[in-house]
Amino acid sequence: MASIVSYNVGRITSPRGATFGTGIDEGVVCAESADSSSEGGSAATMFALGIPGGAATAVILGALILHGWVPGPKMVFDNYDVINTVLWGNVLQALMLVPTGLAFCYFAEKTLRVPTRTLVPVLFAMVVFGVYAIRGEIADVWVMIGFGFLAFLLDRRDYPLVNVVLGLLLGPLFEAEVIRAVTLFSGRWERVLDRPVAIGLFLLLVGILALPRFLKWLSGLRARAA
Questions:
Q1: What pLDDT is recorded for position 181?
Q2: Long-range contacts of 210-215 (CB under 8 A, 24+ apart)
Q3: pTM of the model
Q4: Dist CA 173 CA 96 (whole Å)
Q5: 3-28 burial: b if 16+ Cβ within 10 Å, else e
Q6: Dihedral-angle region of residue 158 (phi above 0 means left; psi in -120 to 50 means alpha; beta otherwise)
Q7: Each residue of 116-154: b (16+ CB within 10 Å) or e?
Q8: CB distance 120 to 127 below 8 Å
Q9: Per residue in 18-39, pLDDT tens?
Q10: Sign of dihedral through CA atoms 58, 60, 66, 69?
């Protein structure tokens, strides 16, 4: 999730955002840097607050509870050795990522030489098999094909597919959290913005949404001035 959000923000703010998706270095850095850094943040919230930030930390949370450790503020003091082990593990895996990534890139580069007429049918067969294997329903395959055709039309119209993916992933989570917040505040949703953190996040969201139009207006202003 972090990599998708970072990629989308980078595409919006970068002067070369139109070239994202073609293998440009900036797009790769946006996605991979966010993906690597998000794990540390997820682990921090899990240990300090007991809130997993993703699927991986949710599994770790379950393992810790099975061992009798309760993640939360007290764990940082009572089981500092566990926290220290995880921190050094993150440092070690970051160092190991460099040689491992370079070695993987050498072999991954070979896949780029596979002809498209061979690669596409193989990938399509794997996707169909994976979708059908989840529930064993042929209707899921037709839904997948329909959404694939929709993605093709959106791509032909230069509509950013990342936004669609974000909407599908974050939509249900956003609705559930909004309902929970409104319930906690007895139906007065405006009270959600009474908290400084909520106001800051809301302003940040508005700024990210308004940034593309502002940059477009600014570039047009510079073009007229030149």
A1: 76
A2: 211/12, 211/13, 212/12, 215/12, 215/13
A3: 0.50
A4: 34
A5: bbbbbbbbbbebeebeebeeebebbe
A6: left
A7: eeeeeeeeeeeeeeebeeeeeeeeeeeeeeeeeeeeeee
A8: no
A9: 777 777 777 777 777 777 777 7
A10: negative
* More confident of the two residues 157 and 162: 157
**Residue 17 in tokens:** 């955002």
The DSSP element (H or E) to which 226 belongs, if any, is none
Question: Which has more confidence, 82 or 17?
Answer: 82
| Contact yes or no for 17/11 (Cβ under 8 A) | yes
Q: Chain-centre distance of CA 224, in angstroms?
A: 38
Q: Please give the Cα distance from 142 to 148 (Å, whole number).
A: 10
**Residues near 132 by Cβ (< 8 Å), separated by ≥ 6?**
138, 140, 141
Q: Has residue 133 got a pLDDT over 80?
A: yes
Residue 198 is encoded by which pair of tokens?
């909520």
Q: Report the amino acid identity of residue 214.
A: F
Using CA atoms of 29, 30, 33, 38 in order, give the dihedral in degrees to the nearest 10. -160
Predicted confidence band of residue 1 (pLDDT cuts 50, 70, 90): low
Give the CA angle between residues 121, 122, 127 to the nearest 5°.
95
Q: Which position has the token pair 């956003």?
A: 174
